[in-house]
């Protein structure tokens, strides 16, 4: 019975994390802030629920399957979040005024300079060929 | 006594999960861009996973564990695919509240590449730039022009160099005037 209550408390904490993510999703005004909020129940909430399940069913099959699920989440959630943030940066879905520092802008500068050099080189090359 | 505590915890957790799903659905409906909707969908999916896990823990249903795996994989595939193909044509809800988004248009993508054609190029790059004008062309330079042709990491939906040359006739003039 104590284990049941512990499991219920863990599930309740997972639900609280999920609600916090939803509230942050509405309250925050930026894509990156919303991404920050939404990552909490995807990892920590699921870990809490998985611990609750493992308390209820302490068998090898269940625990290993839960380990698979959690490790899968831990691997895939950063990848998905990185993709979303990258797309958001490229389509300017972020507030510049909320950024303290934009370290990606310097890389963008270098990349643009490199691209312009490449364009000029290719343009002169084709001109020589044509003319 | 412990029964009451247990039942109250379960009911409270269910109510919280339902509330989080409803609030995330609100964000999905109202989100200004499709990426916000994608994040809302992720939160809904995480809530579903938490609720399903709680159901599995409190009623003896360990046969639902593969459903959790499938849901985790679904969230990953959905996020990656949507954010992969959102870059080129993204439709904002008109009147969106997030600042500095309204000036985004399709012609902005080609602006710096077209702007450098009449100008001497590198000097125009190194001079001061308010970092809003050039950020759009971030990634095609990394992938499309590098000599590595095989990695498909950013080449798919982006306007490549050839596309930019095709489009550059009309849009370049406008963007030059605008800047």
Automatic annotation (TrEMBL), chain A:
Q: Which residues cross the membrane?
A: 6-29, 41-60, 66-89
Family in the record: Belongs to the CPA3 antiporters (TC 2.A.63) subunit G family.
Q: Which domain of life is it from?
A: Bacteria
Keyword check for Metal-binding: no
Keywords associated with the record: Membrane, Transmembrane, Transmembrane helix
UniProt-listed InterPro entries? PhaG_MnhG_YufB (IPR005133)
Entry's Gene Ontology molecular function annotations: sodium:proton antiporter activity
Protein's UniProt name:
Monovalent cation/H(+) antiporter subunit G
Tell me the organism's taxonomic lineage.
Answer: Bacteria, Bacillati, Actinomycetota, Actinomycetes, Micrococcales
Q: Which Pfam families match?
A: PhaG_MnhG_YufB
PANTHER family reported in the protein's UniProt record:
ANTIPORTER SUBUNIT MNHG2-RELATED
- The organism encoding this protein is Brevibacterium sediminis
Whether Transmembrane helix counts among this entry's keywords is yes
**Stretches of the chain forming a coiled coil according to its record:** none
Automatic annotation (TrEMBL), chain B:
Entry annotated with the keyword ATP-binding: no
Q: Which UniProt keywords apply?
A: Cell membrane, Membrane, Transmembrane, Transmembrane helix, Transport
Q: What is its main location?
A: membrane
Q: How does it sit in the membrane?
A: Multi-pass membrane protein
Q: Does the keyword Cell membrane apply?
A: yes
- In this chain, composition skew of type Polar residues spans 120-129
Q: Kindly list the residue ranges recorded as spanning the membrane.
A: 6-26, 38-58, 64-82
The organism's place on the tree of life at top rank: Bacteria
Q: Where is this region: Disordered?
A: 88-179
Return the InterPro entries for the record.
MrpF/PhaF-like
- What Pfam families does the entry give? MrpF_PhaF
Q: Where is this chain's protein located in or outside the cell?
A: Cell membrane
Record family assignment: Belongs to the CPA3 antiporters (TC 2.A.63) subunit F family.
Q: What is this protein called?
A: Sodium:proton antiporter
Recorded source organism is Brevibacterium permense
Per the UniProt record, the lineage of the source organism begins with: Bacteria, Bacillati, Actinomycetota, Actinomycetes, Micrococcales
């Amino acid at each position: 019975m104590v284990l049941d209550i512990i499991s219920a408390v863990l599930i309740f904490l997972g639900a609280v994390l999920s609600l916090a993510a939803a509230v942050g999703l509405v309250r925050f005004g930026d894509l990156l802030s919303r991404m920050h909020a939404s990552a909490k129940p995807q990892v920590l909430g699921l870990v809490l629920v998985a611990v609750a399940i493992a308390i209820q069913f302490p068998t090898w099959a269940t625990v290993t399957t839960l380990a698979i699920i959690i490790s899968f989440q831990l691997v895939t959630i950063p990848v998905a979040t990185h993709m979303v943030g990258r797309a958001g940066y490229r389509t300017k879905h972020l507030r510049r005024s909320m950024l303290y520092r934009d370290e990606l802008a310097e890389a963008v500068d270098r990349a643009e300079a490199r691209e312009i050099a490449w364009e000029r080189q290719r343009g002169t090359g084709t001109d020589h060929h044509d003319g | 006594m412990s029964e009451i505590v247990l039942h109250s915890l379960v009911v409270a957790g269910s109510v919280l999960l339902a509330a989080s799903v409803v609030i995330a659905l609100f964000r999905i409906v109202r989100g200004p861009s499709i990426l916000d909707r994608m994040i809302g969908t992720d939160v809904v999916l995480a809530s579903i996973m938490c609720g399903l896990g709680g159901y599995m823990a409190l009623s003896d249903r360990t046969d639902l564990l593969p459903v959790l795996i499938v849901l985790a994989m679904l969230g990953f595939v959905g996020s990656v695919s949507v954010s992969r193909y959102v870059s080129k044509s993204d439709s904002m809800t008109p009147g969106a509240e997030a600042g500095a988004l309204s000036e985004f248009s399709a012609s902005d993508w080609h602006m710096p590449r077209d702007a450098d054609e009449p100008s001497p190029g590198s000097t125009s790059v190194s001079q001061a730039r308010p970092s809003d004008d050039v950020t759009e062309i971030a990634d095609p330079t990394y992938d499309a022009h590098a000599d590595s042709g095989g990695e498909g990491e950013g080449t798919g939906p982006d306007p490549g160099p050839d596309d930019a040359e095709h489009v550059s006739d009309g849009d370049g003039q406008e963007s030059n005037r605008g800047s």
